[in-house]
Design brief:
Family: Belongs to the adenylosuccinate synthetase family.
EC number: 6.3.4.4
Distance between the termini: 9 Å
Number of strands: 20
Main location: cytoplasm
Helix content: 25-40%
CATH topology of the largest domain: Adenylosuccinate Synthetase, Chain A, domain 1
Shape: globular
Largest sheet: 10 strands, mixed
Subcellular location: Cytoplasm
Keywords: Cytoplasm, GTP-binding, Ligase, Magnesium, Metal-binding, Nucleotide-binding, Purine biosynthesis
């Protein structure tokens, strides 16, 4: 029995969907523990591409139970649309395969309207949110003004809470943000219909998962976004609104830390970032555009082009520490195939001082310049390699260097988007 947490080790978009899909083979339960539909996982099975925003990637495997934990915020419209798409493709034929915790907070239409309006008013100070209402929903959760799934499926409770909370939201929309107010009756009708569909998936994640642990079942905990977007440990304020690090798997599911056996951090062989915020190794040049095109670096949720840069070992070491990572999964190695020279940032230069740590002070971080070590590229395809030993020598040297500068061993290497383009160095499920 093993319980494994998957986290993004950078600023998100590291290829977690594929890695979760690979590891799901060894798990009985796959659980999503934080975030909302501001995150997207792209999976390629055969020649078919599937993009998931809320439902755990394990849903593409027959017989696996997929659970959405209490730490997630859920947009019912997006969730039900995702279910419809999966069913059309032949997945999720048994509804008992999918469970949503009753304490999941519901993204309401006013959350999305407030999110978009705030970003519009922020101008140059904008965060770069997806406008999906994630942040305002978490605000209401913390402020004890949230509507949970367990509230939504009870018509009288939902109506009472909406009547209580909506006047404040409409005041904010009209008087401060200059947007039209929301209609209470229309929300009741729309979300009442969603509630009737969602009721069949209602369950209690903590009870189910702890029963699985007692029964010796393997559990895979699936995170969204990346460690450097964590609301407490990321590049605040340019972060998401939830706990993206491994500790969030405990608070977001009701499973205690004593039962977590492995933490695998997913990292690209380079770095990308979406939205605003500091990015020390960013390449705003021809090389950056090459990485963007070769890696197809466009958001699965928004389609926005991602910012690209060289591998940042300083930032990665921060993620290794805050997550207590036991292994790294390196993705998109193949994107570097054609490069004669590859750079790795091993330290920062700040006003003449060398820093080997990731600064908490935003003003310091945005002035940091990367200090690089150069590596020779392998200048050949990685296709067909089934083991690390079958990779070109210079690719193996690059992987060894990543282990050295991050202090974390490589557990998996992805050399292409398909399932069969994966090298497992060590299986965390044993």
């Amino acid at each position: 029995m093993a319980n494994v947490v998957i986290v993004g080790a950078q600023w998100g978009d590291e290829g977690k969907g594929k890695v979760v899909d690979i590891y799901t083979e060894y798990a009985e339960d796959v659980v999503r523990y934080q975030g909302g539909n501001n995150a997207g996982h792209t999976l390629v099975v055969g020649n078919e591409k599937t993009v998931l925003h809320l439902i755990p990637s394990g849903i593409l495997h027959e017989g696996k139970r997929c659970i959405i934990g209490n730490g997630v915020v859920l947009d019912p419209k997006v969730f039900l649309h995702e279910i419809e798409g999966l069913k059309k493709k032949g997945y999720l034929q048994d509804d008992s395969q999918l469970v949503v915790d009753g304490n999941v907070h519901i993204i309401m239409p006013y959350h999305k309207a407030i999110d978009i309006a705030r970003e519009k008013q922020s101008g140059e100070r904008k965060i770069g949110t997806t406008g999906r209402g994630i942040g305002p929903t978490y605000e209401d959760k913390i402020g004890r003004r949230g509507i949970r799934l367990i509230d939504l499926v009870k018509p009288q409770t939902f109506a009472r809470k909406l009547k209580e909370f909506l006047p404040e939201k409409n005041f904010l929309l009209e008087k401060l943000l200059g947007e039209p107010p929301m209609d209470e009756a229309a929300i009741l009708e729309e979300y009442g219909a969603y509630a009737r569909e969602l009721a069949k998936y209602l369950g209690h994640a903590s009870t189910l998962l702890n029963q699985s642990i007692e029964a010796g079942r393997n559990i895979l905990f699936e995170g969204a976004q990346g460690s450097l977007l964590d609301v407490d440990h990321g590049t605040y304020p340019y972060v998401t609104s939830s706990s993206t690090i491994a500790g969030g798997a405990c608070t977001g599911t009701g499973v205690g830390p004593r039962f977590i056996d492995e933490v695998i951090g997913i990292s690209k062989a380079y770095v990308t970032r979406v939205g605003e915020g500091p990015f020390p190794t960013e390449l705003d040049n021809e090389m950056g555009e090459h990485l963007r095109q070769a890696g197809q670096e466009f958001g699965a949720t928004t389609g926005r082009p991602r910012r690209t840069g060289w591998f940042d070992a300083v930032a990665l070491r921060e993620a290794v520490r805050t997550n207590s990572m036991s292994g790294l999964a390196i993705t998109k190695m193949d994107v570097l195939n054609d490069l004669e020279t590859i750079k790795i940032c091993t330290a920062y230069s700040y006003r003449g001082e060398m820093l080997d740590y990731f600064p908490q002070d935003f003003d310091v971080l945005k002035e940091c310049k990367p200090v690089y070590e150069e590596m020779e590229g392998w200048m050949t395809s990685l296709a067909g390699a089934k083991t690390v030993e079958e990779l070109p020598e210079k690719a193996r040297i690059y992987l060894k260097k990543l282990e050295q500068v991050t202090g974390c061993p490589v557990a998996l290497v992805s050399i292409g988007p398909r399932r069969d383009q994966t090298i497992q160095v060590r299986n965390p499920f044993g």
